[in-house]
Specification:
This protein is α/β, with parallel strands linked by helices. The chain has helices at residues 3-16, 66-74, 76-82, 101-107, 112-120, and strands at 22-26, 29-34, 37-44, 59-63, 85-90, 95-100. The chain contains five helices and six strands, in the order αββββααββαα.
Length: 128
């Protein structure tokens, strides 16, 4: 299963449990409605491709790969500024870990890399 297919199944599941109101596919992302607010849910296998698309309170699904984690750590302040929720996914195993950058920044100590590496290790890394 590819990441885009995983994201659509994931959003259908969230809709079924009424965690989101609705969603629709818009080109290369999904438009998600939560409590009558619209947000974009982007899907980037390579997190570095997300930089030009970051919006306030958007969602991103990306592969649980070390290069994506390293990119997040290197660009942490940009992601925190936008309050992005990121799902690191292994679609073959249907496993994920998630973080909201603004919340994580607020509750974590100053060593962001340590905490993120710990979360990263909870899901098997995607090997291609």
């Amino acid at each position: 299963m590819n990441l885009m297919e995983w994201a659509e199944i994931f959003l259908n599941h969230r809709k079924g449990f009424r965690l989101i109101d609705n969603f629709s596919k818009e080109n290369e992302h999904f438009l998600v409605s939560i409590n009558q607010k619209k947000s974009k849910f982007f899907v980037f296998e390579d997190l570095s491709k997300s930089i030009d698309f970051l919006e306030e309170n958007c969602f991103i699904a990306t592969l649980n790969k070390k290069q994506n984690l390293d990119f997040l750590i290197k660009n942490w302040n940009l992601f925190v500024e936008k309050s992005v929720t990121i799902y690191f996914v292994n679609p073959d195993l249907n496993e994920k870990w998630v973080l909201n950058t603004k919340v994580h920044s607020f509750i974590s100590d100053k060593n962001v890399a340590l905490g993120l590496n710990s979360l990263f290790s909870t899901v098997q890394e995607v090997n291609e």
